[in-house]
Automatic annotation (TrEMBL):
Belongs to the iron-sulfur cluster assembly SufBD family. It holds the Pfam family SUFBD_core. It comes from Planobispora rosea. NCBIfam families: sufD. It comes from the Bacteria. Residues 120-346 form the SUF system FeS cluster assembly SufBD core domain. This is Fe-S cluster assembly protein SufD. The gene is sufD. PANTHER family: PROTEIN ABCI7, CHLOROPLASTIC. InterPro entries: Fe-S_cluster_assembly_SufBD, SUF_FeS_clus_asmbl_SufBD_core, SUF_FeS_clus_asmbl_SufBD_sf, SUF_FeS_clus_asmbl_SufD. One of its GO terms (biological process) is iron-sulfur cluster assembly. Signal peptide: none annotated.
Amino acid sequence: MGLNEKPLSTLHEKASYELADFAVPTGREEEWRFTPLSRLKGLHDGTAAASGGVNVTVEAAPEVTVETVGRDDERLGKAYVPADRISAQAYAAFEKATVVTVPREAVASTPTTITLTGAGDGVAYGHTLVKLEAMAEAVVVLDHRGSAVYADNVEFVVGDGATLKVVSLQDWADDAVHVSHHHAQLGKDATFRSFVVTLGGDLVRLSPSVSYTAPGGDADLTGLYFVDAGQHLEHRLLVDHSQPNCRSNVVYKGALQGDGAHAVWIGDVIIQVEAEGTDTYELNRNLLLTDGARADSVPNLEILTGEVAGAGHASASGRLDDEHIFYLQARGIPFDEARRLVIRGFFGQLIEKIEVEELRDRVMSKVEAELAG
């Protein structure tokens, strides 16, 4: 399938399965201007031939079916069309895909965890499909570990009346490069809850997106990231409201410390002409803990109809509130402990939303370790 004839909007004009439909990025394009192309290890220009591996293991709930399939499986690529060159490269280059299916009306009794572990031996490409049939419910965890240069696409297909909760943890080794697209397609009255945690890796660029196929879809996209010296962590979100009476809410928070720590957050929400009754909001907050750290935050809201229930966005980046620190110090709490408590409070409400208790503890421990470091 070639280039889409009808652009999604002025912000997202291209979508194609064909690699040739995307020019090699130069860094001057709007969608690439924040990304350090020299650190992508050739994922963007075709020089990164598959030479390594990412080991995929699945611990599935008993109600869930898990398959490993070839790239010719007709279920793949139905919900998502690659939207940039690396996504198209990943789609063209993967050999095997993981397919997780939750049958109609099934309620998964335990989370299903997909662990992707980089072997540290080169470039790898992947594809994952999570499909919930009508009225099904499930929690799915994507746990990324190890060292790799990895590009992949993940499709979440949420059927009519179904509920899918996803936790994606990027806990890579310090030298990893990961570029990924996560796309959720929501049916009538479907519910999607996503929680993204990005802590590890040298460069991580994650692009979550949501589309609706019928009225009543409800999406919450939540994210947390902690950027250390020299790290580049980038999140580029897109919510495409093309159906009436759907909802979306986006909340991402990050903390940065160290020279060269760089966070990028792009939040694009599009309300199409036919999407009357849309209710949407997006929020991004960044804490700059030291000099030399940089946060780029760009919310975009494109409204093509005047009949909306609500639409807004907010973004802010700044340092710790001196009044909060002073309040705690005035009560005998040392500065370092006061700083830790304020940052923990900054992330606390988000971390409470993680569905899996062990993951909540793991994420909080990781944040504590970042602060101690």
